[in-house]
Automatic annotation (TrEMBL):
Residue stretches making up the Thioredoxin domain: 22-167
EC numbers on record: 1.11.1.24
Active site: 64 (cysteine sulfenic acid (-soh) intermediate)
Family stated for the protein in its record: Belongs to the peroxiredoxin family. Tpx subfamily.
Name of this protein: Thiol peroxidase
Top-level division of the source organism's lineage: Bacteria
Subunit structure: Homodimer.
Enzyme class: oxidoreductase
Pfam families, per the entry: Redoxin (PF08534)
Amino acid sequence: MKKRAGAVTLGGNPMTLLEEEIKVGDVAPDFTVLDKDLNPVRLSDAKGKKVLISVVPSIDTPVCASQTRRFNEELATLEEVEVYTVSVDLPFALGRYCAVEGIDKVKTLSDHKELDFGRKYGFVIDELRILARGIVAVDEEGVVTHVEYVPEVTEHPDYERALEAVR
């Protein structure tokens, strides 16, 4: 298992990310996560569509909640784009969050069980078993067109660059 020490910080403290980072031009690895009803969701389920994967440490934090709301609002202007918010939160917590916050377009998905997404895309913070903040965009052919690993986990990603990648 590859470890990338100091790849990101959390509150200024260096953290270690597991596995290799994904890069623009890579074929996006298929992964399996769970929806709020414990049903498996795979990247391959969106075959032929653009996919924007919004990666957050926990939906119960202000920046993560803001990131999820932002992409939920932006979906109104994005045609033929699936938006996944992936975290290690339990599926039940994601369902509760969506119900309370009115999140009805973004698919909130849990990687808590196997860390399948986090490991294949290099987002797992080893010290905390949560995902680092970031964005991955995948085109209709399954190729990665945009990647951002936010250097300081408590900061926002570059929303405009991510959205431009799927427009």
